[in-house]
Amino acid sequence: MRLYEYEAKALFGKFKMPMAENILARNVSEVISAGEKIGMPAVLKSQVLTGGRGKAGGIKLVKEKSNLALDAEALFEMTIKGFPVNSILVERALYIEKELYLGITINRADYKIAVIASDSGGVDIEKVAAETPEKIYRVELDIDEKLYTFQGIELAGMIGLPSELVREFAGIAGKLFGFFKSYDAKLAEINPLALTKSGELLAADARVSLDDDALFRHPDLAEMGIEKRHEEGELTLREKRAREWGIPYLDLDGDIGMFPGGAGFGIMGNDFIEYFGGRPANFMDSGGGPSPERIARMLILLDENPNVKVIFGARFGGISRCDDFAKGVVMFLKEHGLSKPMVMRMTGNMWQEGVRIFNEAKSENPRLFEKIEFHGIEVPIEEISKKAVQLARESK
Length: 396
Ligand code: GDP
Ligand code: MN
Fold this sequence. Notes:
By secondary structure, the protein is α+β, with helices and mostly antiparallel strands. Helices cover 37% and strands 24% of the residues. The protein contains 13 helices and 18 strands. The strands form 5 sheets. Strands 7, 8, 9, 10, 11 and 12 form a 6-stranded antiparallel β-sheet that branches. Helix 2 (28-38) packs across helix 3, helix 5 crosses helix 6 (163-182) and helix 10 (292-303) packs across helix 11. The longest helix has 20 residues, at 163-182. The radius of gyration is 24 Å and the shape is elongated. The protein starts with a helix and ends with a helix. The structure holds guanosine-5'-diphosphate and manganese (II) ion. Guanosine-5'-diphosphate binds next to strand 2, strand 3, strand 7 and strand 10. The site of guanosine-5'-diphosphate has 19 residues, from strand 2, strand 3, strand 7 and strand 10.
């Protein structure tokens, strides 16, 4: 279960993690009174269950009290990666000298706890990890080992912290580790760990995911109002819309829109895309024997998703029929139109009829199919997957 920043920070507080003073606000007038209390400059941080708020404009620095209301209003109107902003954390602004990174997670490949640090923290940490992995340092621990102060000191040395900050850093690493273990976290990340101009180290952000299956061990969470979320609250707007339409759908953070046959074929398709180096934007299941309407709606979800660069269609007609599938695709093309390239493959039950329906619609209006690259059984699924990955790459 992913926690909001304000929840994670409340838990960090129990471990005396150094942080700037902050107050949670649920509407504009609460933002104003929180701002009055904390004083200017303050940062308004939209509380959504996704990262990358900074880049999306979800973090605002406010210098004058008179700007609080307008900035808060603007944030409350935002939707970040599909999540509406329902609350704002008002925090004393920091004068940041340098942004570090400190995170703890479980390395599933070897069942170890990885404590990870970098001197290049901030909003581009993913880029740092991908392009300059030598700037990321880690200490790995067995699952029942603890993090010793000397290991925190070692990490501080690796990221080149000046000697006067080493103890402080090791202390923060120890507190984060204490939190991680005590609350059965899967991920606990401080990014940025801010080094301020006055030489303090403060946790400026907190990203935490807890193990759902261990929540029963922490009754204090419910007392703090942190409960296993009613699933609704964690759904993105697209996921909600899909649910209203009865389509099992999950947003992922890639750029290839997955338009599969059933759930099994969907999972396999996602695996193929990942295997060839791509990133699915979603997981979706059409359910057994989907109607043309449902097929059309599946495509609407993908075509209207701004993260999707290319659509990967892989339909294997089993119980479901390729002719219904083809009708749904044609219905979508006629009523809605396709704005993204789509690579697709269709085989199985009634595929000849499916192909006939496509060809008929195409002869009526070839432009409908302009963006579609269509294949049948002669082209293996691997080839279609590679093609989708390649198209997504080219469109970057
Ligand atoms: P994220 O983008 O969702 O990870 O949100 P963060 O809380 O990490 O904020 C993004 C960026 O906003 C940080 O990397 C900082 O550069 C900046 N930021 C956040 N809080 C403060 C603050 O108190 N003062 C200043 N000057 N910048 C901040
Ligand atoms: Mn962050």
